[in-house]
Amino acid sequence: MKKTTAALALAGAVATSLMALAPTASAADGCQRDWLTTGRQDTWSTVQKSGSGCHDVQVVEASAPGGAGGDSYRARYVNASGAWTWASRPYQWIPNGSYPVNKYILVSDLTTGRWFGVAAYNYVGGAVQVAH
C-alpha cells in the first residue's frame, strides 16, 4: 500500500513538473501566447511572431508594478530593413488583469518570424502576456 501511494505521489509530482515546464501554448482561439517583461519606454524581452491563427499582436494579460493598477503599453518590432521600430499605434492604457483576444491590439498583421517586444510607459519590470 505504501509503495502504491508513493508511486502515485511521484507520478503526480512528475506530471505537475512537466506542465509547469511546458511553454505557453496556443489557446482555443488559435493564438500563441508568451509572457514578456516590459521596460520603461523600451522593451526588455522579445519574441518572434508565431505562425498561429492570430494576425495581430495583442495584450491578453497585464501586470504592472507600482500600485497604479495598470500602465500604458506600446510595441516595437524589427521592420523589413532589420531595424527596430515603434508600432504605429500609440501607447494605450491597459489596466492590470486578463482580457479576451482582440481587446488590446498593439500591432496589426505583423509578419510571421519578426521579433517584437512591448514597452511600458510608466513602470519598469512589469509583464504582459501577448497573444500572437
Features of this protein?
132 residues; alpha+beta; 10-stranded mixed beta sheet; 1 helix; 42% strand; disordered N terminus
Give the topology, please.
Elements (H helix, E strand, L loop, with lengths): L1 H20 L11 E8 L1 E7 L8 E7 L6 E9 L5 E3 L5 E4 L1 E2 L5 E4 L7 E6 L5 E6 L1
Account of the 3D structure:
It is a single chain. The protein has one helix at residues 2-21, and strands at residues 33-40, 42-48, 57-63, 70-78, 84-86, 92-95, 97-98, 104-107, 115-120, 126-131. The protein contains 1 helix and 10 strands, in the order H-E-E-E-E-E-E-E-E-E-E. 27% of the residues are buried. The radius of gyration is 18 Å and the shape is globular. 15% of the residues lie in helices and 42% in strands. Mean pLDDT is 84; it is low at 1-26. The protein is an alpha+beta fold and 132 residues long.
Helix count, DSSP H or I runs of 4 or more residues: 1
The helix fraction, in percent, is 10-25%
User: Would you list the SSEs in sequence order as H and E?
Assistant: HEEEEEEEEEE
Radius of gyration, whole Å: 18 Å
Strand content: 35-45%
Largest sheet, strands/sense/barrel: 10 strands, mixed
User: How many β-strand stretches?
Assistant: 10
Tell me, briefly, the overall form. globular
Q: What integer is the average pLDDT?
A: 84
Distance between the termini: 48 Å
Low-confidence stretches: 1-26
Oligomer: single chain
Which structural class matches the secondary elements?
alpha+beta
Summarize this, please?
The chain has one helix and ten strands. By secondary structure, it is of the alpha+beta class.
